Amino acid sequence: MKAILALEDGRLFEGRAFGSSGTTTGEICFNTSMTGYQEIITDPSYRGQIVTMTYPQIGNYGVTPEDAESASPHVRGLVIGELSPVASNYRSRQTLADYFTEHGIIGIEHIDTRALTKHLRSLGAMRACITTELSAEEAIETAKSSPPMEGSDFVKEVSTKESYTWDQDSRRFTLPNVVTEQPDNWLPLPPVKHRIVAYDFGIKYNILRRLRQAGFEVEVVPSTTPASEVLAKKPDGVFLSNGPGDPAALGYIHEEVKQLIGKTPIFGICLGNQILGHVFGGSTYKLKFGHRGGNQPVKDLRSGKISITSQNHGFAVDGTNLPDNVEVTHINLNDKTVEGIRHKEHPIFSVQYHPEAAPGPNDATYFFDEFAALIDSTK
Length: 379
What we know:
ten-stranded mixed β-sheet, 19 strands
């Protein structure tokens, strides 16, 4: 089935639809990861967005339920160069096209993703429309009339409605090794050492797995949970998750997190980092085309160490208006944007990137152990 990708500035791309049909809109962005399309598709931080994969062929290893980052896909659409005709992986349970059909997601292939990415890098992220039913002119107008990302609150759409304790299998997958006496594919979990509360702004499953692997018992609470309820649980610490949309539009969350300052250790990732920037008295701004992919270089300003990181965000903390008691700890080496902050007086730190690495490199997984050490230091 023929399909059209229309950008709000009038740029058009013609391709072929897969998965569902119809019309969808969202902010279009690009991701430079070579693998991990399933994790990207199911990442709640992509709510409201159409994702372009720069890697030319997608779908070659199918879809595996255990690799999902949430219960369902969150992208509004997917733009790729070529859909693999074969899904070859012993763990795969269905093709990407069948998965999209099941969940009503529109994909479009046979797109020059290199040209599209260069266009977005030059002009910035913009609204777009994928359609199998509208004319080119109608598709452009539909893109123009769709809601902008600025001012959007998608957290309310993806956050859990009820609190729950994470009890899913969190063991790390590995290969059997007789030398290390590893008999099967699963590494054992450590005993629980700390009990924390995690605010769900769009939390990824692998963050919860990594927290459990670091010795945390995690109770996940809705984004609207009052700080008083969280503190009444007497947690050893609080985690602020990733999530979608504009962090400046989440004033109701800022007010609750502000009440946690000085009362419990806090660790934030991605949107959690941006929320802390606002809570500390700073601000955020929209990046031209965001950071999305598994190859973003980040420098730790304290040690000088450089890590290759996995990222997915379209907004950043403004490092110029943070108060003196907040330190910028990490920067992106591509554009010098803020990638991590730390409070100098309270046990609070956060990073803009994704140390859970799903998908992406594992350079930054040590932050989960750092959170455990921070909690130990406050007891």
